[in-house]
Write a structure and sequence with these properties.
The protein is an alpha+beta fold. It has 4 helices and 7 strands. It has a 5-stranded antiparallel sheet with strand order 6-5-4-3-7. It has a two-stranded antiparallel sheet with strand order 1-2. The termini are far apart. The mean pLDDT is 84.
C-alpha cells in the first residue's frame, strides 16, 4: 500500500489528506490470458422435509391437477416420481416438479414397492426422426396433411411396470378402506377458502 497526498475541500478539513492506495502491478502480460471456466454441475434440489416416500401429495399443474397421488422417490434430476395409483384414480407414473405439489400428512407404506429401475432415462421420449435437411419437403408436407396421424401408444414394458407398482400399492391400501376414497376424490377450493390457512 502507498500513501498519496490528496487535496480536500472545506475550510475545516485542512486542505489536504493522506490517502492509501494499492500498489500498481509491475508486470503485465503482453497477451490476453485465457481464464479457465469450471463446468457447471447440476445438483438436485434439496427435498422438502414434508416429502418422504409414501406421502400423499396434491398435484397443482398438468392435466391431473387437483388429483391426489402417492410420492415414491426423488429422481437424480430433482423431480418427484409419483403415481395415482393408476388402478384407483387413473394417474399413471410420472415425473413432477416439487414446486407443483402440496404435501399432505397422509402417508402410505411403500416399502414393498420396487422403484429401483425408474430413473430419468426411463421416462425420456425417443427423438423424432427428421429428413436430411432437417425440414419437410413441400410434397411430404401435403401428403402428411391428408393422412391421419397414428395414435401414440405406450410400450408394453411401461404398462407391465405400472401394473406391478399398482399391485403393491393396492395391497398397502387394503389396511384402510377410506384411503381408496381419499385418493379417488379430487381436491378443489370454493369461494372464501384460503389454501395457506388449511392443514393438509
Amino acid at each position: 500500500m502507498v500513501q498519496v497526498e490528496k487535496p480536500v475541500g472545506g475550510e475545516k478539513n485542512g486542505g489536504k489528506r493522506m490517502v492509501t492506495r494499492p500498489k500498481e502491478a509491475k508486470y503485465y502480460p503482453g497477451e490476453d490470458v485465457a481464464v479457465k471456466r469450471t463446468a457447471l454441475v447440476h445438483k438436485a434440489p434439496k427435498l422438502r422435509g414434508s416429502l418422504t416416500p409414501g406421502t400423499v401429495v396434491i398435484l397443482l399443474a398438468s392435466r391431473f391437477r387437483g388429483r391426489r397421488v402417492v410420492f415414491l422417490k426423488q429422481l437424480d434430476s430433482g423431480t418427484l416420481l409419483v403415481t395415482g395409483p393408476y388402478a384407483i384414480n387413473g394417474v399413471p407414473m410420472r415425473r413432477v416438479d416439487a414446486r407443483y405439489v402440496i404435501a399432505t400428512k397422509t402417508k402410505i407404506d411403500v416399502s414393498a414397492v420396487d422403484v429401483a429401475k425408474f430413473d430419468d432415462a426411463y421416462f425420456k421420449k425417443a427423438a423424432a426422426k427428421k429428413s436430411a435437411g432437417g425440414k419437410k419437403s413441400e410434397e411430404a408436407f401435403f401428403e402428411a396433411e391428408g393422412t391421419e396421424k397414428p395414435k401414440k401408444t405406450l410400450p408394453d414394458s411401461f404398462k407391465a411396470d405400472q401394473k406391478a407398482v399398482d399391485a403393491s400399492l393396492v395391497k398397502a391400501l387394503k389396511s384402510d378402506p377410506l384411503l381408496k376414497c381419499y385418493l379417488k376424490a379430487k381436491f378443489s377450493l370454493t369461494k372464501g377458502q384460503a389454501p395457506h390457512e388449511m392443514v393438509f
